[in-house]
Design a protein that fits this description.
Blueprint: E1 9-15, H1 23-38, E2 44-51, H2 57-72, E3 76-80, H3 82-101
Parallel strand pairs: 1-2, 2-3
Helix pairs in contact: 1-2
Length: 103
């Protein structure tokens, strides 16, 4: 089976927070991710948490432990803060604009 022979899913959670993501918020997200993974028949490739200015110290600790768990199970876990999301949005917008101008 080739590279595209098996479909995998990335589970994501967007948090519309202007401040930092607290430990209880991150804990709730990671618990949902783990629960969905357990129900998925291992068809999950990774997890993505988006939003907030950053994580609090407690939130970062919970996320780091979750990342370790994900890696131990052959998956990836990524966190993107609001600045990261804006950078990605701007890059994608510029790519589309440049592609449209060159067509």
């Amino acid at each position: 089976m080739g590279l595209f022979g098996k479909r995998k899913t990335i589970l994501g959670q967007d948090k519309d927070y202007s401040g930092p993501l607290s430990q209880p918020v991150v804990q709730g997200v990671t618990e949902k991710f783990k629960s969905r993974y357990e129900d998925s028949d291992s068809k999950i490739a990774g997890f993505e948490l988006n939003g907030g200015e950053r994580m609090t110290k407690g939130g970062q600790q919970v996320w780091d432990e979750f990342k370790d768990w994900a890696q131990d199970n052959g998956m990836d876990a990524e966190y993107n803060n609001n600045d990261d999301l804006n950078t990605m949005k701007n890059r994608l917008t510029n790519r589309v604009r440049n592609r449209n101008k060159n067509s």
